[in-house]
Design goal:
The protein is an alpha/beta fold. It is built from 12 helices and 14 strands. 36% of the residues lie in helices and 13% in strands. The strands form 4 sheets. A 7-stranded mixed beta sheet has the order 7-4-8-12-9-11-10, covered by helices on one side.
Amino acid sequence: MNKLLPFIFFACAVTLLDAQEWHNFDKYQETITRKEFCRLLDRVYNPSKAVYAYLNVTDEYVEMFDDAEKATLDFTLYFAKPGESPRDAKQTFKTIPQLKDLGNPASKPLQGVRIVIDPGHIGGKWASMEERSVIWNNNPVIREGDKNLQVARFLKTSLEAAGAEIYMTHEKPEPVTSTRPKDYVEEARQKVYEENKVDEAAAAGRRAFFQKLINWRAELYFYRRAEIAQRADNIRAKFLPDLNICNHFNATEKSGSGEIVKDNRHAFFINGCYGPDEVTNPMTRYFMFSKLLEQPLQIEMAVGDALTKKMRKIADLPPVKYGVEKYQCRVNDNPYLYARNLAVSRQYPGPCVILEPFYMNNAWTAERLAAGDYDGTRQLSCGTYRSIFREYADAVTEAIVESYSHWTVPSSKLTTSADTPPPHQ
């Protein structure tokens, strides 16, 4: 679901950054020009330019400071020398030149490509806590995490048929983190008291009110922060991907009240657009520079554009429209694709695209979700359709195959879309 929350809220509890972590950027020395560094920073990663308060940029290098007073230096990154080609960075994912070296057959365009599938949220008994469990129009309960898992299972099969190696962050509606909300109660209590400017004695007079706030925040730390961080840790430890696909279903802010809306839209996100208040946090700046220096943008935009085209074949919906916002920005001429600082794309290594198609609290979407999975087509009150889960998975597969085929399959062997892996029937 697409709620515009202040994203620094989820990063602010992680403020301790080992000074040695900055030396992970040593592999990026002389891998980017000053011009390209500043272009990416200004256009995609920090359009507000607030982060320059922590930088000293020269023609030869950029100094990254821990504080706005620039008293403590975190790291110095040297730019590629003028007139010389940037050095190749040792990325964790296959760059486009490396993908071209694969020379795959048209029948297996994703051979040698490692893809993480991250079904959004947890689902199951955790869905209510996640605020992702709703009933609309007397349909059966719709738990987004469960629906995301259904799509992911079909997607895994299709991508493997195209030759990809797949890692799913979870395959059942259970958290991967071993922690639980109770582990964050004291941290949540301190934060709630701080925000409300009360102490234990003052809070005692409204104990039920404050306990509700504390419990809500402890749950949020569990499923939004700890769960995503553990998935990211698992990916880094077990399976460094060439691409991360995070599949969701979207909804309006009215969805929690059980309200059905006429509107229905698509949105797709890549990492970027760190807000001016977010870059005051050292850990957030570290993540931002990690993503900028990885330079995944060309792959992310190609996949994002292809996803837009394929998802619009399922339903030609308009894009989610944002005004002049400091927490999201366009990255190209695709009105559906935005850069946004989300915990998933911030922490997952390599190119990452987050899918938020359809509004679940739209009657058309809700009916198709409530119909569940089935073979072939079925007559619904909104029309005759295949399973929305299979259509979703097929669209994503076709988009990834189309994008990667241009790099992995020699042009003489490129096939038409009819020759890509067949959709689920």
